[in-house]
Amino acid sequence: MTNKNKQLTTSHGTPVGDNQNSMTAGSRGPTLIQDFHLIEKLAHFNRERVPERVVHAKGAGAHGYFEVINDMSQYTKAKVFNSVGKRTPIFIRFSTVAGELGSADTVRDPRGFAVKFYTEEGNYDLVGNNTPIFFIRDAIKFPDFIHTQKRDPQTHLKNPTAVWDFWSLSPESLHQVTYLMGDRGIPATFRHMNGYGSHTFKWVNAEGKAVWVKYHFKTELGVKNMTNEVAAKLAGENPDYHTEDLFNAIEKGDFPAWKLYVQIMPLEEADTYHFDPFDVTKIWSHKDYPLIEVGRMVLNRNPENYFAEVEQATFSPGTMVPGVEASPDKMLQGRIFAYSDAHRYRVGANHAALPINRPKVEVNNYQRDGQLRFDSNGGGSVYYEPNSFGGPKEAHEFKQAPFQVSGVAEQVAYDQDDHYTQAGDLYRLMDEREKARTVENIVNSMKPVTKKEIKLRAALNFYKADADFGERIAKGLVLALPQEVK
């Protein structure tokens, strides 16, 4: 045992501010699931005695760096976003969502956009998609949603009836479905698509002042998309087209790059904004909160081994650094637990110690044993805390910023249920040709649905977003909309 004190960290290298008290809603309130240190400790402990991803199974990845262009220290103390010219190594994984490991790259599906920053304060994972929104806004619906995207348990075939039944009964999905069925539903390549953190996060500066933040990665190559015809042809001829394109571009020195921008909302404005800013099915108006340039991300090195790096890479929205914290976004709150837990199941309790996931800083904690423990396992050092033998200790300056909570503990929906305005706004932004293509994509996707009532319910949802939108879809499906909605 050693007498030298070391900084206690999570398995991702993030300093621990309090290892004695879990985060609760007040001194007697219930424990909050966003306490990622508590969840990590308990979930790892459950697995100390000793499979394809459920979602995002098919993917490609690359190494690179992130360089700061504008110092963000007025908003966040996270060192990765401070000091102009500062470079931080990164690893990024792009993926499709619903398909299996052998599925085609060019299907109509959102693309995962997950970035791991190897910062001097531990790893920071920004785990989003190529869309700024998502289909649902509460994590309790996520297993059901993904079930509809997978194979039918009897036929083992994809099931459009299940897909549209769920979407039509979940009108909050309308905005994302409109985005998915539009031209950006099939990117030309991974290099020609934007990426988004999607959720609202909290930034906290060195003085303890907090703001709400959204992340936007804008491709420097410009957004380019793929037609249905080209996508279908490639799915048959080269199902790994996007994977191949990314590898070959980097291999020949054509390094893809993105500019990172953020939207910043003052903390107090979340209470008065015209919709709930933590609802991941909504976007913030760029007129209200303009984009602020932060830095530039460049991918300049391919993996040496796909399995060791791309397949074993693990990302979680709960892997944060000082200066970045969670918001009340219900989908984010659930993902903070679910993603890391999926990795503990799939890769193992010690996944964070694998070379691709290991932070560049020293990791000091009391996690022991478990499958595939391939380091010294703590040797003979002290293995509990608190202790009298100089083991790693918490540092209170890294405690998360306090925030107010109120209300009755109950299962309750978001306050606002306007699922239609932003979907309609997106449709109205399209030119006439894209509108026609979007309608055609939706109609073709819905034609195999076996129940007429599902088609009608979905068409009515689109009608509520925009009358022209709904009427075109109904016409394409040979449906008569009820007179009372017109």
Architecture overview:
This protein is α+β, with helices and mostly antiparallel strands and 486 residues long. The protein has helices at 36-46, 142-149, 160-169, 174-181, 228-237, 241-251, 306-311, 330-346, 421-429, 432-446, 452-465, 467-476; strands spanning 59-68, 87-96, 111-119, 122-129, 195-196, 201-204, 210-219, 257-266, 292-301, 324-326. Among the domains are: 55-135 and 170-177 and 184-359, Catalase core domain (Catalase HpII,  Chain A, domain 1), CATH 2.40.180.10; 421-485, no CATH class. Strands 1, 2, 3, 4, 5, 6, 7, 8, 9 and 10 form a 10-stranded antiparallel β-sheet that branches. The N and C termini lie far apart (77 Å). The model has no long low-confidence stretch (mean pLDDT 94).
Q: Output mean pLDDT.
A: 94
The rounded Rg comes to: 23 Å
Q: Can you tell me the residue ranges where pLDDT is under 50 for at least 5 consecutive residues?
A: none
Count the DSSP helices.
Answer: 12
Write out the CATH superfamily name of the domain at 55-135 and 170-177 and 184-359. Answer: Catalase core domain
Largest sheet: 10 strands, antiparallel
Rounded to the nearest angstrom, the distance between the terminal CA atoms is 77 Å
List SSEs in N-to-C order: HEEEEHHHEEEHHEEHEHHHHH
